Amino acid sequence: xxxxxxxxxxxxxxxxxxxxxxxxxxxxxxxxxxxxxxxxxxxxxxxxxxxxxxxxxxxxxxxxxxxxxxxxxxxxxxxxxxxxxxxxxxxxxxxxxxxxxxxxxxxxxxxxxxxxxxxxxxxxxxxxxxxxxxxxxxxxxxxxxxxxxxxxxxxxxxxxxxxxxxxxxxxxxxxxxxxxxxxxxxxxxxxxxxxxxxxxxxxxxxxxxxxxxxxxxxxxxxxxxxxxxxxxxxxxxxxxxxxxxxxxxxxxxxxxxxxxxxxxxxxxxxxxxxxxxxxxxxxxxxxxxxxxxxxxxxxxxxxxxxxxxxxxxxxxxxxxxxxxxxxxxxxxxxxxxxxxxxxxxxxxxxxxxxxxxxxxxxxxxxxxxxxxxxxxxxxxxxxxxxxxxxxxxxxxxxxxxxxxxxxxxxxxxxxxxxxxxxxxxxxxxxxxxxxxxxxxxxxxxxxxxxxx
Length: 452
Hints:
Elements lengths: L7 E5 L14 H4 L8 H12 L10 E5 L7 H12 L6 E6 L6 H9 L2 E6 L4 H5 L12 H10 L10 E6 L7 H11 L3 E6 L7 H24 L2 H8 L2 E4 L12 E4 L4 E3 L2 H4 L11 E2 L3 E2 L1 H12 L14 H11 L3 H33 L21 E5 L5 H12 L5 E8 L4 H18 L2 E8 L3
Parallel strand pairs: 1-2, 1-8, 2-3, 3-4, 4-5, 5-6, 6-7, 12-13, 13-14
Antiparallel strand pairs: 8-9, 9-10, 10-11
């Protein structure tokens, strides 16, 4: 029997916000009476989450969102200091529109090891198309955000994520948006499609064209053979911000509403009055695993097999949204499935290459792929088979370099590993392909693993 251990706690610190974004996933939450969690409630929530203890797979995450968390910065600061006083080391993330961000707040968050996810949809026209200040007045949200970002210390955005929400209207500008964000200094983007929008056939065709343009951008960088251009494209991380571990393992996420109730999804925590029926606990009783599983079973029963794949849309979240608002989920699930298939078909492989690139960038031996190896064959190596069982990732890539840096214009490379070596073998395969492209070599590659 599996042990229930939530890995991510999303805390809706407040339902107060200084913006009124047209596609806000918290729109129903914002419509209610103003509410903010107390310091005592925050400590209790963290205590409940921490009691489950760390598990495999890296640090667990506590995310602060809203509303706008920086409206309650003293409270947020107290909560962060409390979390950092605990024995378990958590990843902490704050989602913010950045209109209230200043050097002092940014310095504290950086000093405390807090990740920032800044809501930024692109240039001024794109960003202001849906993001407006509460109360109107016509002031540009983008201008306010940009002033704050420019006032931060140099290079401070290198570790900050830009959280981009895309609608069918703004989708065609996504390639330009990515260029803009890179020029501003961002290196990470979390991409999300408007959770409430119906993606019509015309909208899906536009989505496909946009993803084709992104793929062409990557292909052109590879074809150039320019290490700097390739590094600029592939070191920029594009991820689906709504993607979870998978349809059949959704129990890692738990959300806490400003009223102090736990929900299995942010979709339910922000649903307003109708979401109360889906509560799975509170600060007094803790998290009820049986209720949590019952909610997901209810959603799973409505999702046909062809719509279960995760991606830019979570079919579970879409189904839960329909349940709480009394909607027929079939149309929204069909939209989600079609969009997810497009992402997988068009740029799924490229996102995997990005993941591998980030892993390689952590390797002191290989860095950014631009450096020659310590050892290379002095005579042409046209064929090489590597029995990779038991080899470390660095050793796998060193073996590939031995052949790729030889005088031969073409190389046949066979990587074979035993059970359990799948991820390392995949990294070595992607590395070999990228390195061959950089060196102008023709590569015929075969990667074999019992675990693949």
